[in-house]
Structures are given as structure tokens and as C-alpha cells.
Fold this protein.
Amino acid sequence: MRGSFPTHWTVALAACALAGAAGAAVAQNVSAQAARLDHADRAFLEKAAQGNIAEVETGRLLEQHATDPAVKRFAERMIHDHTKANDELASVAQNLGVELPTKPDRMDEHELMRLQAMSGEPAKLDSTYSHTMVQDHKMDIREYEHEVKAAQNPQVRAYAEQTLPTLKEHLALAEQLPANQGTAAR
């Protein structure tokens, strides 16, 4: 018949239409999940991403400038663990349709600049970083424990539960850094 599509063209067009509709449905579902995400859960995801990024950036600075081998090892561990945590967080955020920040918050950026300014004074840098890591991880643990109890979304709660033991381990390691031995940083 003149003017009609061959069967294989009709099948191909139908497949394309179905694929487009399926993609639109998935995108709509992700958008609906993001819209239903509790404000506190969204804020936790965003703050967690910023915190992970800050730990990685600060760890890189100390990896380059620390003179104490224990501080250098700790910084390397922060880079590894917080990169992994942020990858897992990105997966959760993607499932929920949440776009995460790509840089630390202002307070963490200020702290990073403060530490960068000490890079010419390695002993002071090592000590300040060591003390800061104790305080930061105590605060992070409180926030993650709160999210484990208060999260409305099960994926957000699972991320917090999964990450919390690593944060507690980081605190224990930070407390063992030489600059924190016998000080009030605990």
C-alpha cells in the first residue's frame, strides 16, 4: 500500500514512543519523590554532602602539608572514607531526585582557608587540624544520631545509620592523634 509505513518502521516508532513515555514516567516519579522529601531530611542530605566535601578537601591539604605521620595517615583516611560516604550519599540523593551541593558550606570554607594559611607552620597546622577533627566529628555524630531517630525517609535513615559507625571510628582516631593526647580537646 502506498503511503503506509513498512511494519519494521511502525514497530521502531512504537518502541521509541514507549521508551520516551517510560523515561518521562521515571523522571516524573523522581520529581514526585523529591517533592515529598521532608525538609529536614533534605537539609541533612545537603549538609552531609557539604561536610563530606570539606573533609576531603581538608584531608588533601593535610596530606600535602602535615609533618606528623599520624596526622598524614588520618588525613588520608578522611579522604578515602568521606569520598566513599559522599558517593553513597550521591546515590541516595539521585534516587530521591535531590541535587546535592558540590562545595563545602561557608563555615567549612573559612576553616579550610584558615588551615591553608597555616601551611607554612606545619606543627601548628597538624595541631589545629587534630583538634578540629575531634570537635567536627563530635558534632557530626550528634547530627547523624539525630537523623537516625528523626528521618522520615527510610533511605536517608539508612544512609545515616550506615555512616555513623565510621564517624565514631574517626572520632576515636582523632582523639588518638598526638596533639590531642592529654588535652581538653576530648
